[in-house]
């Protein structure tokens, strides 16, 4: 009986093996399908992750921008509330005056006066003053005034800015600027102030105008005419010729100079009346003088004979101009003039050759 049972067992084992082998593909197939399903699922997960990250980044940027905007709006609102409650505001700057305090042949001195008003309840410091003077876009001079003072609370202050133009510097820099001319100018001023709430702000200011480059007039004694002649005291009139080489009129108010005839001083002379020296023109004026001919020694006889008489002049003239008063020097060395007597003193008193 035992010998017949073995084949059955073997067959069953074989069948079991066959069944097992038949079952394996099913398992493998399911595993493959599971793998395919898993691989199909992965892109969806990755894509979802990418989309989620994108949304998060957008939300982050949007949140960041929104936060900054909110901060800015908050600060702006607070600033407006403080300004409205306490009364803070921006200061103002306006030109109070522009004066030429001094002008002569060497330089012109300006004083720029700017009125600054502070509407704030606290003082504000004037940190810096920057200024620039230019002509036709070319710099003439610039400067900086640091720590220029303080503008009191709810107050106003006139700030004075002194400026000096040296004519030689201008003429040496720009050859086309000639003595006697008038040039345009522009003054630019920046006032830097520190205001609560607003911080540091700049108050700009500009002013345009014209400034002269003055030139001294030429002066000559055309002739000397006697009104009364004696050795002790002679009264005469100096016929002066003045040439104004400037592009503007000169209002002659006063003469301050000394005259020498034949190397002898006849003293200073006085202007009897004012005169207008027209621009780029020649003007004649008469100046009375008194002197003692006997002090001239041998040169007196040359004067009496009507020969040429040497003279010199040195001093200043005071004039008014469209740009203010000026004191201009006048000099004349080695000039020659002629003495002319009237008929009562033996002269011909002929004025036909007089220039008026």
Protein architecture, described:
The protein has helices spanning 2-87, 167-173, 299-305, and strands at 92-103, 107-117, 124-135, 138-151, 156-166, 182-195, 199-212, 218-228, 234-244, 250-261, 264-268, 275-277, 281-291, 309-321, 324-337, 339-340. With 356 residues, it is α+β, with helices and mostly antiparallel strands. A hairpin with a 2-residue loop joins strand 10 (250-261) and strand 11 (264-268). It starts with a helix and ends in a 16-residue tail after the last strand. Mean pLDDT is 75; it is low at 1-21, 23-33, 35-39, 41-47 and 351-356.
Q: What's a concise summary of this model?
A:
The protein is an alpha+beta fold and about 350 residues long.
User: How many alpha or pi helices?
Assistant: 3
Name the helicity range. Answer: 25-40%
Q: How big is the Rg?
A: 51 Å
The pLDDT mean sits at: 75
Instruction: Tell me the β content.
Output: over 45%
**Biggest β-sheet description:** 5 strands, antiparallel
Q: Which secondary-structure class do the elements indicate?
A: alpha+beta
Shape: elongated
Report, as a whole number of angstroms, the end-to-end distance: 177 Å
- Write down how many β-strands occur, each being a DSSP E stretch of 2 or more residues: 16
Question: What is the element string, with H for helices and E for strands?
Answer: HEEEEEHEEEEEEEEHEEE
Unreliable spans are: 1-21, 23-33, 35-39, 41-47, 351-356
């Amino acid at each position: 009986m035992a010998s017949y049972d073995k084949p059955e067992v073997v067959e069953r084992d074989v069948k079991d093996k066959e069944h097992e082998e038949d079952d394996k593909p099913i398992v493998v197939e399911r595993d493959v399908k599971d793998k395919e399903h898993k691989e199909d699922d992965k892109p969806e997960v990755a894509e979802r992750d990418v989309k989620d990250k994108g949304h998060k980044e957008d939300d982050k940027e949007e949140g960041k921008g929104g936060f900054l905007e909110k901060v800015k709006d908050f600060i702006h609102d607070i600033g407006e509330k403080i300004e409205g409650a306490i009364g803070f505001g921006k200061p103002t700057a306006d030109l109070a005056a522009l004066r030429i305090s001094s002008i002569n042949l060497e330089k012109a001195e300006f004083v720029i006066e700017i009125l600054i008003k502070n509407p704030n309840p606290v003082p504000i410091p004037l940190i810096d003053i920057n200024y620039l003077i230019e002509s036709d876009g070319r710099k003439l001079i610039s400067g900086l005034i640091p720590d220029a003072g303080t503008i009191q609370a709810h107050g106003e202050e006139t700030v004075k800015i002194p400026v000096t133009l040296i004519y030689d510097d201008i003429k040496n820099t720009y050859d086309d600027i000639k003595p006697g001319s008038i040039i345009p100018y522009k003054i630019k001023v920046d006032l830097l102030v520190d205001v609560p709430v607003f911080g540091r702000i700049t108050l700009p200011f500009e002013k345009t105008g014209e400034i002269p480059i003055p030139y001294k007039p030429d002066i000559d004694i055309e002739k000397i005419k006697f009104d009364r002649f004696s050795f002790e005291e002679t009264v005469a009139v100096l016929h002066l010729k003045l040439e104004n080489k400037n592009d503007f009129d000169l209002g002659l108010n006063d003469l301050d100079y000394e005259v020498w005839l034949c190397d002898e001083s006849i003293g200073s002379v006085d202007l009897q009346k004012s005169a207008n020296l027209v621009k780029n023109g020649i003007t004649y004026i008469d100046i009375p003088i008194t002197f003692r001919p006997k002090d001239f020694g041998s040169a007196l006889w040359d004067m009496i004979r009507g020969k040429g008489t040497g003279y010199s002049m040195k001093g200043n003239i005071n004039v008014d101009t469209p740009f203010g008063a000026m004191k201009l020097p006048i000099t004349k060395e080695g000039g020659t003039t002629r003495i002319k007597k009237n008929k009562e003193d033996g002269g011909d008193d002929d004025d036909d050759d007089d220039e008026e």
